[in-house]
What we know:
The structure holds 2 protein chains of 2 kinds. In chain A, 43% of the residues lie in helices and 27% in strands.
Amino acid sequence: MNYFSKKGQSHLHLSVDDLQKDREQLKNYLVSIQDHLEPVVLLHLGDAEETTSGLLALAVAIARHLKENDRTVKLIAEQELVDLLRPLGFERMLELKAS
Amino acid sequence: MRLPEQDAIRAEFVTEARDLLMRAEECVLRLESQFEPGELLELFRLIHTVKGNTSMLGNPEIGKLAHSLETELDNARQTLAPLSLSQTELVLSGIDRLRTLLDSHEGDAGKPVERVAPAAANRSIANQKADNGVSKKIKVASRHLERARSEGKTLSLITVNLARDPAADLRTSLRAFESLWNGTTVLGAMIREDRLSGLDSTDLSVPCSFLILTPGDPTEIAEINSLSPDHLQVIYSAAPVPTNLPAEVHSRVERIDHPKKTEETHLRVSVAVIDRLINLAGEAVGARNEFMQKLRKDPVLFRAGGRINSLITRLQEEVMRVRLQPLRVFFQRLPRLVRDTAAATQKEVRLVILGDSVELDKRLLDTIADPLVHMIRNAIDHGIESSAERLQKGKPAAGTLEVKAQLMGGNVVIQIEDDGRGLNHRAILQAAEAHGLVDSVRAASLSPDEIAEFIFHSGLSTKSKVTETSGRGVGMDVVRTSFESAGGSIVVRSQPGAGTQFIASLPQTLSIITCLIVRAGSQRFAIPQMNAVELVRFDPSAVAQMSSATVYRLRSRLLPIIDLKQLFTDEPSEKIGFLVVVRSERGLYGLTIEGLDNPEEILVKPLGRQLQEIGLYAGAAVLADSSAVPILDTGGIARSVNLSSSGIDSVAQSAEDAITDAAFAGLVFQYGGSEFALPVESFPRVEKRTRYQEESSLGKEVVHYTSGPIPLIRLESLLPVPASDGAFLVIFTRGGRTAAIVADEALRVGNDLPPVELGLDPGSPILGRCVVDSRTIVVLSPEVLLNGGAS
């Protein structure tokens, strides 16, 4: 998981490697960067070829954590995924945007 | 006469017995490190089960041995006393003997089988709360209720888990939900935030509720395409359903509440059946390619074929997953292996295993299992010191052996690292010189990593002297060959006194790969995309003869080239169209070809022994037009023409010499307030640093780049420049090696920079300087940087 901030938005990149990591480690990482995060966080859902169901679950858990810390979270995924996620209720929880 | 069914049952038993013995062995090892009465009882139970099932085999020796073991353990069970060392040895050797007997029995019983867990077998329905009429617990818009009443349908809320299989491709998983739409009207969907687990939990589930309108019983939806509702609430039912749940649902609920056997969630399938499925999926991909190629002429039909196209792709993806096995299957053997090797060498070793859930194609796992065992034995035997020696050096008495697996992109990376004495570079170099692998002039300029590479040389591996002095070498050529035959690679890094690290990378699965289809003469060949670096239009004026090698000048770099047609027919190509730059373990080289067809996804078919022995082919494939082509082995070709890595380097060296007498071409970047440049001959390219994971290994920083781990260079460690946490990486390659430099910003790529004024010190990381608009640009030496800053 990597992040950088640009133009008032923070970009948080998730990859399948994050699934192997310890949850406590991920949480500690999020806590460590929390104060540096902009009000809007763009959560990038891995590389197109590597996006697994588990990664979506992790993204949702992270989004929930960030929302609890007053951040607006947008899930960033490729168009095909966006089209598939949209009818499944993600619009209500996360704002989707094609990359 | 024995019936096939009896064989199948025996094969089933043998597989199950192996599982039980594996678990029993783990129990023994745990008991040895820490005694737990519960563990002893579990061990007894496992051996008892093995014994109980032996009647199936009709093999009295297995029955007797299992009975003896059970008796031995029963005595220990009565007293609940820890097993003595002799008892431990006895039980372990008994388990080994049982395995051997099972192996000999297996020849009769058929092939080994592996576990698969089809999603369909994992159905569950929990917390059913069906109700007559309208549920009062759920609030829904009155228009939905009205619609259900007026249409005489059932309105329900069904909750399913979007991430039931966390490792499944997300697109494939999501498409499965399209089946919900069949015969069902979905009025709304929402993520169940109230049911989400927190970040602390390891639970990877995304519960999603759908408000649905169905003509009949909504539980039927659960049966569609393996979708299983975790929760179903009927809000309104036009046709009153019985107060109690339907019998079918009842029985399923009962099964969930009282799970009886794990077998209900797994099916045992023969490897042969899986191989046939994979073959069929591969054939389907080939037929699909052929079909789509023909449809291409008709846009309407081509669009219609799109659905078949995507279905076959999905089918192939799912079938390929069936053969993936968690590395746990192999890693389970390691505690015993380490224990026995440590005992035999009288050393203390602590084993750390990470990433055992990473999955790898079973065939590839079988190919690399023995080499991995060899490397682990080597690490303990030669790498890790005796306790006394370690204590003398200020190290902990017990050595640490770490075996770690990671999935990176489509590759599985396996690292084996010990904290032992490390390689003896001097002894290896002396041996390499003695065997004529390197001359003394070149030997002086080799980096430690380059010297370590000699341990993979077959000439050295058979010399016991080298093994004794370096601590590595025997069979390491076989190790590398095994990884290469699996489509992977292996490198070694070592720091004297600190330890040795082997990093192996191989594709997760190999059966279906994307290939370039090239033409040479009347023959077509396939080149795996992963081995092709670049394709360029051939320019005859760029060809030159240097010593005995024909080379091609590509952006100031000189590449050795091989005429593909001449390689197979002894006749040179009549009209060369393209140059394919390919990689091999000896570095990059060019293959000249006459023409090029569309790239294809192909199913790799094994070759017959005679063709394999030629050493130029990695396999064969059937193309979309039904013709067969051989798949080229780029490493084998390099070896067959004796393309040596030192030869490639010397050719490349002459290219670097050229940069000083002409306008300089390079990539200019900024770091710590200064401007630096790397010559284009080192293929510099810029990447965002956030894209790649960085870590520290044996005191060195590495970046996990697409090709595997590469050194990370911080210029402040080599030059008087302030440190900076740059956001970019400048990746460069030289002599087949790649490294990354931290950079603040890429400024430009120029081919018109003034000539470089060379520095006086050939060992300095600064190759020279040039001045542009009164600003000095420091030109870095790729070679010296790759050697750690000192040549």
